[in-house]
Model the fold of this input.
Amino acid sequence: MEFDDLLRLVGDEPVFETSLLLSGEVSPDDVRRQLSRWTRAGRILQLRRGVYTLAPPYQKIKPAHFVIANRMVRGSYVSCQSALAFYNLIPEYTPVVVSVAASRPARWQTPFGTFEFRHIKVDWLAGYRNLDLGGGQTAFVATPEKALLDLIYLQPSGDEPQSLEALRLQNLERLDRNALQAWAERSGKPKLRRAAAYIASLATAEMQEYETL
Done:
């Protein structure tokens, strides 16, 4: 395979995988050797084993961070602080893109930043949607309510008032409190039920504060 062949095949893809290049009558060893050469030459960037993106100036589409995250671990979705910051529910910028998946925990440093994957049980792997990120790119991202409960679920003592207040939650009117409560009940975990009730009280207090202004 020549580099022009690669460009024709993956030029419109923000991220591509080795498996895409192995269809047809090709030698897997030859393909992997070529990928190694193009990586060393700076023509492509390796995100993790078997996952790549074209390097500038060859890329037509700059890959969105959430798209990279989805493609690095299939079956994952962006959640926790990354999703909460995306929805402007917390004020902090989150330099690490956090996702959840049923696979084992992992963390990769890439040319696009750090990507972390937290483990959750298969029956809790839900509550996400495919969001349009612009430029023809979409990614699976937790709903605001599920992102918040995922974080609490994964964080020791995450339901304690001091832990919840440390998040500095904002714009709580954007939360669907019924959905938050439903997810907490579905989990069967008292920890999440307590957290949902406390967050509902914070949302009520925030609304009352706005009404007095």
